Amino acid sequence: MDSLSQIVLGAACCGAVAPRLGRRALVYGAVLGTLPDLDVLLLGGLDPVRQFTEHRSFSHSLFVLTLVAPLLGWIIRRLDSRVAAIEPARWLLATWLALVTHPLLDAFTVYGTQLWWPLSPPPTMWASMFIIDPLYTLPFAVLLMLAWRRAREAVAMQRLLLVGLALSSVYLGWSLAAQQLAVRRAESALIASGHGHAGLLVSPAPFTTLMWRAVAVDEDGDGEAWISLRPGAPAPQWRWQPQSTALREAAAQTPPGQRLAWFTHGYYRAYSEHDRLHVADLRMGAEGDYFFVFEIGQREGMLWRAHTPRAVAQPRPRLDRLGDIYAQF
To answer: Residues 187-224: pLDDT tens digits?
Structure first.
């Protein structure tokens, strides 16, 4: 999720567990809640595919954060006598929650979060939340600001934060329920289109949980459909793009292609452009406007030779596409 959401969530967790610290708890929680995303500072020397797939790995591991929490909690207690005055177990819980809720919230997005690193199952992507969702963040942020103003009243501050945590959690639950409604509609339309055996991924449209984007992949190609949860909305219309099996196999024979196939759960397109082998992540963006595309090889005669991956520059997201998407609602 976006940084503001993580700041609000981290601050609320820390403040709700350690309300006697007042604004100190909110500040510490906000800082701890943003720490996992600082992994980007350590990935700059890697090639674009490694940067893309290593983000949200070690720094978002529940194992790593659980091990790091006591150390960070101890450092803060050593530096701040006010923190040292509260129960060690309470402060450890506050620190741990501010840290681990970050990757758990990220797991609700489609990007993918490696919760179990260094184990290597495909990244967790519940894919029920867009990376920015005002209905999740703004009410939560308002309650956090009210709690900040009532910071000298521990009970009042804690109640406001607990309300914020409860409402935001209910919204996450709604997103999962709404996703299942969208999945059912997408599956019915997929079967009607003759692609009922295709792999299916359903994720929210930008900034909402009332409009959803479905992606399907099978041996013939990949498809995209938009699903409205409006009562009486027409059935989703699938639009299919052919995909070369030979190019998918060529990509899968390269280390970057294998890494991308694992990271995307197989939701990618391999295609050639000017004798260059490209892989596009189908999960983020929309047909013709994918956010992440990588060049991973080049043609040499009848074969493809892998080279150091390069990011393929993509145009900025087109605002008119958003209008077209929402018009389908």
So the answer is: 999 999 999 999 999 999 999 999 999 999 998 899 99
25 pLDDT above the threshold of 70: yes
Amino acid at 310: R
pLDDT of residue 231: 92
**Domain range annotation of the chain:** 3-122, 127-141+173-242, 243-311
For residue 199, the surrounding DSSP H or E stretch is strand 199-204
Name the residue among 264, 242, 240, 241 with its Cα closest to residue 252: 264
Query: Is the pLDDT at 323 greater than 80, yes or no?
Result: no
101, 8, 2, 123: which is closest to 57 by C-alpha? 123
- Helix H or strand E encompassing 318: none
Q: Which residues contact 223 (CB under 8 A, 6 or more apart)?
A: 190, 193, 195, 198, 214, 215, 216, 217, 238, 239, 240, 241
Q: What's the pLDDT at 317?
A: 62
Query: How open is the CA angle 177-180-183, to the nearest 5 degrees?
Result: 155
With beta carbons less than 8 A apart as the criterion, state whether 103 and 56 touch.
yes
Q: Classify the C-alpha dihedral 266-271-277-280 as positive or negative.
A: negative
